Amino acid sequence: MQSLQMGLNRLDNSHPLSPTLAEKISSKQAGIGGEERLADIFLKYTFTIEHRIFHDVSLFSSTHFQMDSLFITSSFVLIFEVKNIGGRLKFIDDPPQLIRTRPNGQVDGYESPATQVERNVELFDEWLQARGVHLPVIGVVVLAYPKQIVEKAPAKTKVLFPNLIPTYIRSLSMFPLKLDNGKLDWLTAEILSEHQFYVPKPLCEMFPINKKDIQTGVVCPLCHNIGMKRIKRTWHCSNCEKNKQLAHEQTIKEWFLLFGGTMKNADCRQFLHIDNKDTATRILQKMNLKFNGNYQHRTYTMDFTYK
Question: In this protein, which residues make up the domain named NERD (predicted)?
Fold first, then answer.
């Protein structure tokens, strides 16, 4: 969501993709609210079965995959895909799609959450098998609020509201124990060790946004106005009249999230509105970026894929 907000801030309000980015941001914020609601349920309820709970887990099997919430026991695994989409919902199985009808009659189509969670089930099962762990993996779609009316549920995937999850988990007590506590602790450590920070594609790769449409300039960290001026080794904001010495760091991070790839000295100067090559070099070298090449042809990259 960070890159979406950055892109929206740097696009003119009249840009044809501004409404799309705004809607995506709203959807992401709703999703975060739904995930928090699920987390609250896990905090309020206790379960007699030994278990571990993970939120927002990103792993790699045959490809990278991200799970909203993961509930692991010694007998089974539950993967929860949380959605907060209001209106009347129809899960279509062929082709897989979620159809939402708003109160005003507008109809919207989305990728099916059932398909998303079943894809994660396959990938996590593959991840477990590679480590010699054999547990049943079950996918569940969670609708954050009862205001979401399900007119047609998916044929195979369970759909639940958060308050029904504890009862559903208790209903799975028939599964036999597969792991002892030591093995469950090992699996927990393995997931934490292999978890990777999820980095989406650069915004201009996800959406057909021309690089020239992105407003350049250093963002003031206090008032968020774009266009701070470089003055005597600091940055001055003409809007709030404040100075910030390291304001460029967030703006350079924005460049990588918006465009990706490698940054040249000229890219830095153009985006930060500075003229001096040596100033740009000092800024880039102090940011602990990865670099390649000699001084004249050096390029820089930012590594977001830390664990």
Answer: 30-147
Positions of the chain with pLDDT under 50: 306-307
For 216-301, CATH number out of 1.10.10, 1.10.167, 2.40.50, 1.10.287 equals: 1.10.10
- 96 closest CA partner among 159, 154, 142: 154
- What was the pLDDT predicted at 307? 40
Q: What is the pLDDT of residue 16?
A: 92
Q: For residue 26, what are the contacts with CB-CB under 8 A and spacing of at least 6?
A: none
pLDDT at 168: 96
Q: What angle do CA 177, 183, 187 make, to 5 degrees?
A: 110
pLDDT score at 87? 86
Look up residue 276 and give its DSSP letter. -
Structure tokens at 14: 């009249």
Confidence at residue 1, expressed as pLDDT on a 0 to 100 scale: 64
| Amino acid residing at 224 | H
Six-digit token string for 290: 């990865």
Q: Give the closest residue to 2 by CA, choosing from 176, 257, 241.
A: 257
153 neighbors 170 (Cβ within 8 angstroms): no
Domain boundary assignment for the chain: 48-194, 216-301
Report, at the CATH architecture level, how domain 48-194 is classified: 3-Layer(aba) Sandwich (3.40)
R_g (Cα) of the chain, nearest Å: 23
